[in-house]
Design brief:
single chain, FdhE-like fold, 9-stranded mixed β-sheet, 38% helix
Length: 305
């Protein structure tokens, strides 16, 4: 099913006056809720084994947050200076410095390995446990830049999970004030990564509000409703959903760049999670790809598909 969006007027639709520009992640609660969502979505799903595995991985992320002391942040003055200049304080790969992210990886690998996993996955875990810090840091930089070799994509799932924890914990420690839109709002103002998906939910005065969700630090930021999250165009925006579903997850396509970003309606389903529901709706990705649309940003956990 495809629906065309009305032409956007001069009002920033969805930018309700009371809506906060930035929502920083709450950890480990975010990962616990995500784990539960994966398990609910797995029931009877064609991707049930993978969704259950992702639920376990999300729970391992939550356990890593609880077990490890928070990693360091850049100097507070550097953070404030970056925000004042409109720069993302957690941009780049600076948070790879030190051993904290590798400690997260070790904790996640142990948690997953303690359960029943396929032999192929166990081999990946054993190999990662043996790798030198410099090799792991190289893998991490490849994940951050979406430049993962095909042979390394199994390991990339665990690397991506660890980087999410590292950046989400750091983001949760930041003061939320003073952030500015980055690249017309299309990039995360905290870490400069692309959005994984967007959500539409009710604002306090009844006007729907849209947030883009970062695929790395898991922060969310307010964004205009009928506007492409990939190129910023407000023309030729349409919405595509799979017939026979509740249309809670649709693809927002753009005629200008031929890209799309998924848009999730929490008004239709309050339990939606950007990461879990994105992975559970790969059928929508296939449908959009057949229609000639290109996904605007990669899901780091779908590199194996």
């Amino acid at each position: 099913m495809t629906t065309k969006a009305p032409i956007a007027n001069t009002v920033d639709i969805g930018k309700a006056a009371s809506a906060a520009f930035l929502r920083l992640p709450e950890v480990p609660a975010l990962f616990r809720k995500r784990a539960a969502r994966f398990q609910r979505l797995a029931l009877g799903h064609p991707l049930e084994p993978f969704l259950r595995f992702m639920g376990r991985l999300a729970e391992a992320q939550a356990e890593a947050v609880r077990a490890l002391k928070p990693g360091g942040l850049p100097d507070a003055r550097e953070i404030e200076a970056a925000k004042a200049d409109g720069l993302p304080p957690l941009g780049g790969d600076g948070l790879l410095e030190g051993s904290y992210w590798r400690g997260v990886l070790t904790a996640i690998l142990k948690s997953v390995a303690d359960g029943d996993v396929p032999e192929e996955t166990r081999q990946v875990i054993e190999e990662l446990n043996k790798e030198a810090p410099a090799i792991l840091d190289g893998r991490a930089r490849a994940v951050l830049s979406d430049d993962v070799p095909e042979a390394s994509r199994g390991a990339a799932v665990f690397i991506a999970a660890s980087l999410q924890v590292r950046w989400a914990v750091a983001a949760s420690m930041l003061p939320p004030e003073g952030f500015q839109p980055l690249e017309d709002g299309r990039r995360c103002p905290v870490c400069a990564q692309a959005p994984l998906a967007s959500t539409i939910g009710p604002a306090s005065e009844g006007q729907s509000t849209r947030y883009l969700h970062c695929r790395l630090c898991t922060s969310s930021w307010n964004y205009v409703r009928i506007k492409c999250a990939a190129c910023g165009s407000t023309e030729g925006i349409a919405y595509h959903g799979i017939e026979g579903t509740d249309q809670a997850v649709r693809g927002e396509t753009c005629d200008s760049c031929h890209g799309y970003v998924k848009i999730l309606s929490t008004e239709k389903d309050q339990g939606l999670d950007p990461m879990a529901d994105d992975i559970a709706t790969t059928g929508l990705d296939l449908m959009l790809a057949e229609g000639g649309w290109e996904r605007a940003s990669a899901n780091p956990f779908l590199l194996t598909t």
